[in-house]
Amino acid sequence: MKCSSLLLLALVLTTPALAHAQAADWKLAKDEDGVRVYLSEVPGSRYKSFRGVTLVKADVATLGHLQENLRVSCAWLYACAQMRLLKYSDEAIWVYLDTKLPWPAAPRDLVLKVSTEETPDGGMIRHLQAAPDYVPPVKDRIRVPSVSGTWQMVPKGPRLTEVTYEMRGEPGGSVPSWLANQFVVDAPFESLRMLKVVAEHQGVRDGGY
């Protein structure tokens, strides 16, 4: 069963708004621990979009599994409190995500439709799209109304994969500007950093390195 849940989590929190910006529009915001985070202004939105890029010493299959296991993916996805599968089909999966955001942001939840595309080079792209009306509103939660993004995994050698995580969205309600600016950097950075740790530990445990 393909449950690419982890991706959803990250976007869920991402108060950012990632536009289909050209490469020239991305500005480097953080470069640390092998993870680079870029931000881009989104016309008509108060929130920036983000792009996170890193190299992981693991193959695409390992990374895909870590995304499809909802319990594991919630553990490494930034600000994920809970994820559960709502529906699975050959076309896509629908996942409910509950977030834990830093104070003073109000708790938010998100329903995501996640579809998977396999690329000719042996890579994978996860397409994420909010489906806010898929389930009724939840008490004491602000439903994220709009979010879209991708996780892209490109093989770069034996057990080496370039992972790119891009997101754009509107968080709903109000979010302090300082928190929004912090989140668009922390969400991709921490998600990719922790994914590297988990994936590379998995490789060592399996005797791959």
Automatic annotation (TrEMBL):
GO terms for molecular function: lipid binding. Transmembrane segments: none annotated. The keyword Ribosomal protein does not apply. It holds the Pfam family START. GO terms for cellular component: cytoplasm. CDD domains: START_1. Keywords: Signal. Residues 18-204 form the START domain. PROSITE patterns: START (PS50848). Gene3D superfamilies: 3.30.530.20. This is Lipid-binding protein.
